[in-house]
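Supplementary notes for students who missed Thursday's class. We covered one full example, reproduced here. Read the sequence, then the structure, then the short commentary at the end.
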Amino acid sequence: MKTLFLATILFLSGLKAIQAQHSSPNKDLILRYQDTIKMLSYESINNPDEAERYSSSYKMIRTLIKALKTPNSFNFGFDSVKTISIQLSPDRRFRIFSWHVMNNNGSYRYYGTIQMNTPGSSTLKMLPLIDHTEAIKNPQDTLTTNENWFGAQYYKIIPVTANVRSPYYILLGWKGNTVKTTRKVIEVLQFKDDKAYFGLPVFEGNKDLLGKKRVIFEYNRQVSMMLNYQPKERMIVFDHLAAPDPRITNKPELMGPDMSYDGFKLSNGRWKFVQDLELKNAPSELDDSFIDPTKALKEKVNKLN
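Structure (token representation):
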């Protein structure tokens, strides 16, 4: 009994030593940064004054950079920060931070950064995402980099590595647009020469997709659109958008789901358009969090406060 008691004491002492190692000064520092980021990101969404929203976002950027410069920050999840979308690539090669600030006129500006995973190195490798949406006149046909980014708030990363010469990633994103319309985006991401490149003509299936570098859906702001990925089928699925009158064209503010579904199926590294899908699985409840991050994030944050 005495031996067992001593063994237990030694085990607990060892466990405390391990916990002390994990509770390092670096982690404590990042936790303090996280608290600041949480507060500022809340203000960037909820403050009624537009200038204050932007001021909070700029302060948050400076704090986030400090946090990411902290050694081993890549392994810190920032789980308590609910107003920034943080997506880790399945291969743990990188993660994307993305968020938005809404303007008083109902439009949005997007912010973000890509943090590369650099194990064994104390140097931060980060690719800031600079929103140039207004300057990109034909976004479906334009190749961009992280320095002239077609901004969005991403919620899904899909790696494509098989049967391709250069591996790439598909990003699914929400893009609030104007007081009348919302957008969702299927984006393509590659890394080359220490830059992130967005856009790649990997979509096919009809003449409207020929040569398109990314796919953009635009629809009435008051409705919701499902855009998600089904890994078992290797398929991106989404609501088919239509106007109430089929004679109406080029009026995205009148577009909305018509209760049918289309998709893109991955085949030999390319995404082939498939029309009129019969979904085996109904859209999940999680799709609600992909409809409008502004509304969803406010609800989450308000529950925490």
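Commentary. The chain has two domains: 18-81, 93-304. Residues 25-46 form the longest helix (22 residues). If anything here is unclear, bring it to office hours.
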